[in-house]
From TrEMBL:
Function (record text): Catalyzes the interconversion of 2-phosphoglycerate and 3-phosphoglycerate.
Name of the featured protein: Phosphoglycerate mutase
Boundaries of every Metalloenzyme domain copy: 19-412
GO molecular function: metal ion binding; phosphoglycerate mutase activity
Keywords: Glycolysis
InterPro entries linked to this entry: Alkaline_phosphatase_core_sf, Metalloenzyme, Pglycerate_mutase_ApgM, Pglycerate_mutase_ApgM_sf
UniProt-listed PANTHER family: COFACTOR-INDEPENDENT PHOSPHOGLYCERATE MUTASE (PTHR31209), METALLOENZYME DOMAIN-CONTAINING PROTEIN (PTHR31209:SF0)
Domain of life according to the entry: Bacteria
Length: 445
């Protein structure tokens, strides 16, 4: 500590604030699997580096929104980043930004996708989507749909492959339901419905536009050629993730510290862009150990450049969970762990946190669930507990207990010796950190 100031008894505080690295293994959480001895893939995996972190640090469960609700990645991350009190703009906005599109402010946008379907008793059952090999056909079909959709006030901006951003030029509210059923086994294509009175006009126009798109796709020569070649027709346009881009605070303004991200997908690029976070984009590699090692190294470089919070993400765990093969998810975790040796050195100069954004069970007929995901934090403010291995079962004895998505960032800031002091206000907007850049009182004496 530094000597006390004149007339003071308390020593001046040392500046031992640390930056934070949050490593999110997407969809990490799971359920007990009989084939794995009633263990989850994380519990069954051989993960010496993650186990060592758990043994060095404090642990708990990340349960984003309490027991029960099944979070999506975008909703979890919005709260994990400290934006739970800011209206979420809609994932379509972030997908568009991540693709490099100039997403207009104040206009409703939706994610639109070309799908294959089966008509049964007046209902369209979604049977698939455009594959990578269908990119040329998808481009032609979207080109044809431009004039069809324009008649109803919509424009298309390609996102790549069979996906586009659908812009509702005459609507400033996006309060409508998804038409994409997501759960294709349970539901056919859904009718767009308003979620508030503000969405009534958009729902009406969108339904008319989707019917027009369907009629055109059924008659398209592109689809006729596909059928002749033994390929399924891309005969349906589905929509989801409606939203509106509006002014929102940057990550720095919302949290008080400079944020950065090592991004892996279009969505996370868009999230970082929207929040004005510095980013390093690394395309996912098939060698998962090399992939995650490169991401950890990139996080270190961002810290050297001044970032005080760095989000590192891999989707490999989530993708493995969606295969419904628990062995595949276990193996993916083992491969990722092989690339985490760099976390040990990084933990000497930063708080390290490892967790998931939700559970993606590798068993049962569910996409995501509210099952707990392990949380490990290593840092000067994280008390070492009795946990010695990384996983859901062992984490139940962790020091932090159950942590929600909204609680995560304040917890990490405390562990990094930079929590907001509730008896001291230095920013017009409340932030969860001891802000790095409050406005200084300047004099010209």
């Amino acid at each position: 500590m530094k000597p006390a100031g004149y007339g003071e008894s308390q020593p001046r505080l040392d500046d031992d604030r640390r930056p934070i690295v949050l490593l999110v293994l997407d969809g990490l959480g799971d359920r007990p699997v009989p084939e794995l001895g009633d263990r989850t893939p994380a519990e069954a995996a051989d993960t010496p580096h993650l186990d060592a972190l758990a043994a060095r640090g404090a642990n708990g469960w990340h349960v984003p929104f309490g027991w029960g609700p099944a979070p999506s990645s975008e909703v979890s991350h919005w709260s994990m980043f400290g934006f739970h009190d800011v209206a979420f703009p809609g994932r379509a906005v972030l997908e568009g930004l991540g693709a490099g599109l100039d997403v207009p402010e104040g206009r409703a946008v939706l994610h639109a996708a070309l799908r294959t379907s089966r008509l049964e008793s007046g209902r369209l059952w979604i049977t698939g989507r455009a594959s990578a090999a269908d990119s040329d056909d998808a481009r032609l079909l979207f080109s044809e749909l431009h004039s069809v959709l324009a008649d109803d006030g919509f424009t298309l901006a390609p996102l790549g492959g069979g996906e586009s951003l659908l812009v509702a030029e005459h609507h400033e509210y996006a309060d409508v339901t998804d038409t994409d059923p997501f759960f294709e086994t349970f539901h056919p294509l859904l009718r767009p419905r308003p979620t508030t009175e503000n969405g009534t006009a958009l729902a009406t126009d969108l339904e008319r536009a989707l019917r027009g798109a369907r009629a055109h796709l059924l008659q398209s020569t592109v689809n006729a050629r596909r059928v002749d070649a033994g390929l399924p027709a891309l005969d349906t346009l589905s929509t989801k993730w409606a939203g509106v881009r509006r002014p929102i605070p940057s990550f720095l303004e919302q949290t008080g510290i400079a944020g950065a991200a090592v991004t892996s997908t279009r969505f996370y690029r868009g999230l970082a862009k929207l929040l004005d976070m510095q980013q390093t984009h690394l395309r996912p590699e098939s060698d998962l150990a090399h992939d995650i090692a490169a991401r950890v190294a990139a996080a270190g470089e961002l810290i050297e450049a001044g970032a005080q919070f760095v989000h590192v993400h891999t989707k490999a765990t989530d993708e493995a969970g969606h295969t419904k093969d628990p062995y595949a998810k276990r193996d993916v975790l083992q491969q990722i762990d092989q690339g985490l040796a760099g976390l040990d050195a990084l933990s000497e100069r930063a708080v390290i946190a490892v967790t998931g954004d939700h559970a993606t069970p590798s068993v049962h007929g569910v996409l995501h669930t509210g099952d707990p995901t392990p949380l490990t934090i290593v840092g000067p403010g994280a008390r070492r507990d009795e946990v010695t291995a990384f996983g859901e079962w062992t984490a139940r004895h962790g020091w932090f207990g159950k942590v929600s998505a909204a609680e995560l960032l304040p917890l990490l800031l405390s562990c990094a010796n930079r929590p907001v002091f509730l008896g001291h206000r230095i920013t017009p907007r409340w932030v969860p950190a001891l802000a790095d850049e409050p406005e200084h009182f300047r004099v010209t004496e």
